[in-house]
Specification:
353 residues, mainly alpha, ROH1-like, membrane, transmembrane helix
C-alpha cells in the first residue's frame, strides 16, 4: 500500500519470482505457446482497461468493464488447466491450499462490495422520494423533501464496516503474491505463472474498487511486476494512470471518485438550500424545476450503473464459487490426496455453502 506521507510499499518482497522459472524447466513448445497466449490475452485486456479520458476514472462503466475482464481472466485459468492436461490428482498440496485460501478471500471481498453497492442503492431510494415530493403539489412538499434529502446525506455519508474487513483481506491476499516452489513439473510452473497474473489483476481491481467505495486513496496498492511477464508494461501503464487520477482527486478534497455519485452529490448541494428556504418567486421556481430535472437524470444514471455493476460483482462471485465447486467435486473422486488437503477441502468447502 502507499500513503502520501509514507514510503511506497510494493508486494514483491521476495524479489523476482520468475528469475529461474523457465531456466531448466523443460517447457515444451505447446506449454510455452499456452503461457504466451494467456499472457498476451491478459496484456490486451489491460490495454483496453486504460481509460481514454481522465474523466472515466472511476466511472461505473469502467468499474463494470474491469470486473468483466476479471471474470474473463479467471475463466481463462480453467481453459489453461484443461489445455495443460493437468488433472486435479497432479496438483501439489500447497497449490491446493493456496487456491482454496485465496478464493475464500475473494468471496469475502465480493460480499463486501455487494454490501456497499446495496448501501448506495438505498441512498437512491431516499433521493427518489425527495424528487417525488418536489414534483407534487402538497403543502408539505419542501418539508418532506428535506427529510428525504437528510436521509440521503446520512446514508451516503455513513461508513460500511464490511469495507474495513475487505481491506484486511486484501492485505493478506497481497502477501500471497509469491509463487510456490515447483520441482519437476513444467505444467505446474506454467499454471503458477498464469495464476500470478490473475492475482495481480484481481488485487488491482479490488484496490481501485475499495478506494472508490471508501472515499479514500490510503488503501490503494502499487504492485510491481517483473518485466519478464508479457503483460507487465500494459499493467504498469494502467496502474499508474488510474492510481494517479484517484490520488489527485482525493488530494483536492473530492467527496468521491465515483463520477456518477459525484454528479448526484453536486445536484443535491444545489437543491438543498432551495428546499430549506422555499421558493420565493418565479425565477426560483424555474431554477428548482431545472435542478430537479437534472438531478433526476443523474440519479437514474447512478442507479442504472449500480445495478449493472452489481450484476458483474455477482457474476465474479459465481465464477469463483463454481471454480471451487469443480475442484472440490473432483477431489471426491481422487484417491491419492493427502489427509491434510482433505481436511482443508472439507472445512473450506462447507464454509461457503
Amino acid at each position: 500500500m502507499s500513503r502520501p506521507q509514507d514510503p511506497q510499499w510494493t508486494f514483491l518482497p521476495f524479489g523476482n519470482p520468475f528469475r529461474m522459472i523457465l531456466k531448466g524447466s523443460n517447457l515444451s513448445p505447446k506449454q510455452l505457446d499456452l503461457l504466451n497466449t494467456f499472457e498476451e490475452t491478459l496484456a490486451g485486456r489491460l490495454r483496453k482497461l486504460k481509460p481514454a479520458d481522465r474523466e472515466d476514472v472511476l466511472s461505473l462503466s469502467w468499474m463494470r468493464n474491469s470486473m468483466e475482464s476479471l471474470c474473463e481472466t479467471h475463466a481463462d485459468i480453467k481453459i489453461l488447466i484443461t489445455a495443460l492436461e493437468l488433472p486435479v490428482r497432479d496438483w501439489d498440496d500447497k497449490w491446493i491450499d493456496v487456491y482454496l485460501g485465496n478464493t475464500m478471500k475473494l468471496l469475502d471481498i465480493c460480499i463486501a462490495f455487494s454490501s456497499e453497492i446495496s448501501r448506495l442503492k438505498q441512498g437512491h431510494l431516499f433521493l427518489h422520494c425527495a424528487l417525488h415530493d418536489l414534483n407534487s403539489s402538497s403543502s408539505k412538499q419542501f418539508m418532506d423533501a428535506r427529510s428525504s434529502l437528510d436521509g440521503w446525506k446520512q446514508r451516503i455519508g455513513s461508513k460500511n464496516p464490511r469495507l474495513d474487513e475487505c481491506f484486511s483481506v486484501m492485505d493478506s491476499l497481497a502477501k500471497t503474491l509469491d509463487i510456490p516452489k515447483i520441482k519437476n513439473s513444467p505444467k505446474g510452473k506454467v499454471l503458477m505463472r498464469a495464476m500470478y497474473g490473475v492475482k495481480v489483476l484481481t488485487l488491482f481491481v479490488c484496490s481501485t474498487f475499495a478506494a472508490a467505495f471508501s472515499g479514500s486513496a490510503k488503501k490503494l496498492m502499487d504492485l510491481q511486476v517483473p518485466e519478464i511477464c508479457l503483460w507487465a508494461e500494459a499493467f504498469t501503464d494502467l496502474q499508474i494512470f488510474v492510481n494517479t487520477e484517484i490520488r489527485n482527486a482525493y488530494s483536492k478534497g473530492a467527496f468521491t471518485v465515483l463520477k456518477e455519485l459525484e454528479a448526484v452529490d453536486a445536484g443535491v448541494k444545489k437543491l438543498y438550500p432551495i428546499v430549506q428556504e422555499g421558493v420565493k418567486g418565479s425565477a426560483e421556481a424555474e431554477a428548482l424545476k431545472n435542478i430537479v430535472s437534472d438531478l433526476e437524470k443523474s440519479d437514474e444514471k447512478l442507479n442504472e450503473g449500480l445495478n449493472l455493476l452489481a450484476k458483474e460483482v455477482d457474476g465474479f462471485f459465481k465464477v469463483i464459487l463454481t471454480g471451487r465447486d469443480a475442484l472440490l467435486c473432483n477431489f471426491r473422486f481422487v484417491g491419492n490426496v493427502s489427509d491434510e488437503v482433505r481436511t482443508i477441502v472439507n472445512v473450506r468447502g462447507q464454509a461457503v455453502r
